Fold:
Amino acid sequence: MVNRRIVEVLRNGQPDELLTVQGWVRTKRELKGFTFIEVNDGSSLTSLQVVLNQDLPDYDKTIKKLNTGAAVEVSGVLVASVGKGQRIELKAEMVKVHGEADPETYPLQKKRHSFEFLRSIGHLRARTNSFGAVFRVRNAVAVAIHQFFQERGFLWVHTPIITASDCEGAGELFSVTSLDLKNIPRTPTQSVDYSKDFFGKPTYLTVSGQLEAEVMAMAFSNVYTFGPTFRAENSNTSRHLAEFWMIEPEMAFCDLEGDVDLAEAFLKHIFKYVMETCSEDMEFFNQRIDNSVLATADNIINQQFERITYTQAIAFLEKADVKFEYPVSWGLDLHSEHERYLCEQLFQKPVVVTHYPTKIKAFYMRLDDDEKTVAAMDILAPKIGEIIGGSQREERLDVLERRILDQGMKPEDLWWYLDLRRYGTVPHAGFGLGFERLVQFITGMGNIRDVIPFPRTPENAEF
Ligand code: ATP
Ligand code: MN
Structure:
């Protein structure tokens, strides 16, 4: 008999079809003369209802083993369902129990579990409705990202995970070393002798692939990275992970406006794709997690994003009749409460803020003519705050050298990055987007630990 995915059976299965499904039992209901089980194989939120009649061989023995969590293979015939809630169900003719799950100890029984509890059983939580929906949407978002860039002729480039440069200069680096920590080689002045280390110099897990993406953009015009990124964030927030995935497009022959245009088209494409391919999961999030999920998707897809400068944003915030916890004045960075005011209260849609003060942004952002601001852009989203951060890059060698020195960095350390400005330099721009923040934004999940299968946060690397 043909093996079928449950999503496909629920969608297209017709009465009298003979088939086999494989999955895990979600629930069992024993009635007089027959038993219902719900079988889920992860392909859809809805499980397939299976009916076992008492005239099945070994009926009593089999149903004892069919507890929540058991792995089963069921062959039978599809029949129109008389019960409410499903169009069709599978009448079992042969049931094979691959692995039982003891109801006394299996932690996922049929009731609502808190996300905190589910985090403590990270190896089993993917078998719940919520995590099933999250990881299907996560997959769809990844597909949509590649589709968006591939359709536009962008090259997917793989930037290194181990690097010697701290792109953001934020100091949240994990060191990579093969030195014996019990016997660290020292220089005559007692600092660590990195010449004895694996790479002969200090190296780290990457915090961003941007600088390397710029290298590739200077040959392939339009490129993007999509890979893991690491930050030793020592804060426990609902928006920060120590290991997360980042998407970083980089475009040659592109200015800030082109960068914002691409970012807006990108977000619209992702939301559209997810709504088309994961509508059942999205309904679930709207009902059970956050009742604004569908309205948000509609808003992103159909509204033009608001575009304002940082200077205008400060003026709006100064006029606001709300009391902010953090001060607002030209030159200070925006805090999450300010970002949320702009997109949730003032404009009620995503807001793109451009031209931030030079002092609060990274060295590689292109200096504006007045030198007070740089060609940076952040896209702020309701509930999340910053979802995308990008800029036009500084393509002028002399200005870039000056900016590196101003930030107390050494131009020699970035000699290859500066070479890009020596040979065939061109205006270029790009942005970075945290993959998990995006999945959070789409699904309405409150905690970033719940949108990645194996979250890495301070003191947590169990699974
Ligand atoms: P934040 O102020 O929220 O810490 P950031 O300014 O450090 O963000 P960037 O350096 O601009 O962020 O990184 C690009 C994108 O990566 C951010 O817009 C965000 O979506 C995501 N991001 C940054 N840090 C993390 C993290 N620790 N966990 C998950 N996503 C992150
Ligand atoms: Mn940060």
Summary: The two ends are 37 Å apart (CA to CA). Residues 35 and 273 are 39 Å apart (CA to CA).
